[in-house]
Amino acid sequence: MSDTVEKPPVPQDFDALRTAILERKGELPKRLTQVAAYALDHPDEIAFGTAASIAISAAVQPSTLVRFAQHFGFDGFSGLQLLFRARLRERTSSYEERLRTLEQDGAALAESTTIFNGFVAAAHRSVDAIAAAVDPDAFERAVTLLAKSDTIYLIAKRRSYPISSYMAYAFGKLKVRCQLVGTSAGIDDDMLAMATSKDAAFAISFSPYASESAAQARMMASRGIPVVSLTDSAFSPLAECSTEWFEVVEADHAGFRSLSASMAFAMALTVSIAEKRRRG
């Protein structure tokens, strides 16, 4: 009998590569994990950049990029990079084309109008991306899980807090019991301590991740309380402790990111939960 270990197949497209990274991330050395996180968080930069520029952005040596590619069966980094370029070709380019047009016409517009158009275009790209990224089956599982809970604990800080705050407002109007975590009295941990296995949590955090939100989500999960989360990377601390998690990467304009896709997702989840409860 042969003792040869069969090697995993070489990923043939970006989705297959992403799946392989997530399945094997626990076995990756520290530097390769660093490259994996950067690749999934910045796929466009991987597609367009040179090995040298990508290495600088990912804070690794160019040779680490080669080792990362070879770990997943490619001869070199350029072979892996082809998957990222193919991903771009397959994506709808309408919004990118709109933004380029806006930038080209910007000189003829007032500065405030250019900024407005830029943010609108970024919002379009964000919403378009999350529409394609969310798995309907996973979304349905998350809705079912949260709808059957007695109380939904909403965990968020900093940039994510407006999302949970608006969800709390909407849940109140829809007569769904929830608890917004993040009080000025500083009793968040005491509040979460009242949660039971009949409850659930929805946590939100984006890079740079709020350590308090991650700790609270981990604490809830360790007590057997299911956690659903919205975050921006498979390497987010929320992904590790969540029963279901969803990835949204907001497009930016001039370095500023809105919450367009995140808010759309949150409201769809909120209304779906209320509807699921109404139908019993």
Automatic annotation (TrEMBL):
Q: Entry's SUPFAM superfamilies?
A: Homeodomain-like, SIS domain
Which Gene3D superfamilies does the entry link to? Glucose-6-phosphate isomerase like protein, domain 1, Winged helix-like DNA-binding domain superfamily/Winged helix DNA-binding domain
State the UniProt keywords alphabetically: DNA-binding, Transcription, Transcription regulation
Q: Which residues form the HTH rpiR-type domain?
A: 15-91
Q: Which PROSITE patterns match?
A: HTH_RPIR, SIS
Q: Could you tell me the superkingdom of the organism this chain comes from?
A: Bacteria
According to UniProt, the name of this protein is RpiR family transcriptional regulator
Endpoints of the signal sequence: none
Per the UniProt entry, what species is this protein from, by scientific name? Answer: Devosia psychrophila
- The residue ranges of the SIS domain are 142-279
